[in-house]
Structures are given as C-alpha cells and as structure tokens.
Design a protein that fits this description.
Helices cover about 35% and strands about 35% of the residues. The chain contains five helices and seven strands, in the order βαααβββαβαββ. Strand 3 and strand 4 form a beta hairpin.
Length: about 160
C-alpha cells in the first residue's frame, strides 16, 4: 500500500532539501544550458546559506511530497504583500508522470484559498513546453514575463496566474 504525505519542511530538512533541489533542477534544465551556467546557478541558488534563509522566512513554506516515506517531489510557496506564489514545484525523475505535480499544485491552491487571496501566480521557463501545457490544463493564463538569470544567461520566464 502506498502512503502519500505532504510534509512541511523545517531547518532539520536542510541537507535533503539542498540535495533534492540541486538534483531536480539539474535533471530538468541541464540539457538546455551549459554546465558552467548550471553549476553557477546551483551553487548560488541552492547553497545551504541561501536555502536556510528561505526556510527561516515567515513568508515562505517548503514541502516534500513523500511516497511510503521516500521523497518524490518538493515545492515552495510564498505569501506576502505581492500575493501568493508557487515559486517551485519539482518532481524527481523516477516519480514523473504519476500526477505528483498535480498533488503539490492542488496543495498550493488550497493554501492560497485559505489565505483568502484572489489568485495564485508562478513562473515557468518560456521553453518548458511540458510545464506550460500542464499549467494551461490547470487553468493558468500567461500574464507577463520576467528575466530569470541562469549563470551568465538571461532567460525568460512567463508569469502565469490562476484566479481562485
């Protein structure tokens, strides 16, 4: 029997969060970027110092989705004066295509509704066709874009929103 759990992270989860963050980002984007830009980004964005700062933030929550105690995916939700943002949602390679991303998205939507916000927003790389199709199917609409700096490569992320 499979047990699925969504667990809020604490500082004691820092080492695993760093490992899962680095692995999922690498698996998702390495084939599209130079190793140097990937390593620069991973070193800066997923350093223990940076992740600890994000874990301690009162505006952010990280979650692991675990299946039978094994981490399958993670997400990061932010709530501040700018609204509710699903900043990260990544699934480990062995668990892709089983609907796990949808479980974390539903979790974020529920959290946004509990926070009584009118919309949820997220960013997705302009060339991530799978993610764009997934979010479109879930009712998200393209609203704007911004630069996502990956090493020395300025990339474009689309900002998607969903009315709640």
């Amino acid at each position: 029997m499979e047990t699925i759990e969504i667990k809020v992270l604490t500082e004691s989860d820092l080492v695993e969060l760093q490992q899962v963050s680095r692995q999922t980002f690498w698996d998702t984007f390495a084939e599209f970027n130079t190793p140097e830009n990937m390593e620069t980004f991973l070193t800066e964005a997923y350093s223990r110092k940076q992740l600890l700062s994000e874990l301690k933030s009162s505006n952010s929550r990280f979650y692991f989705l675990k299946i039978d105690g094994k981490t399958a995916a993670y997400s990061k939700e932010n709530l501040d004066e700018d609204g509710f943002e699903l900043e990260r949602i990544y699934v480990l390679k062995d668990f892709r295509r089983y609907g796990i991303g949808k479980l974390l998205l539903d979790h974020a939507i529920s959290a946004a509704k509990l926070a009584q916000v009118k919309e949820i927003k997220l960013g997705v790389w302009e060339h991530n066709e799978n993610a764009k199709a997934f979010y479109k199917k879930q009712g998200f609409k393209h609203r704007s874009k911004h630069v996502f700096q990956l090493g020395d490569d300025p990339q474009t992320d689309y900002i998607l929103t969903k009315q709640l």
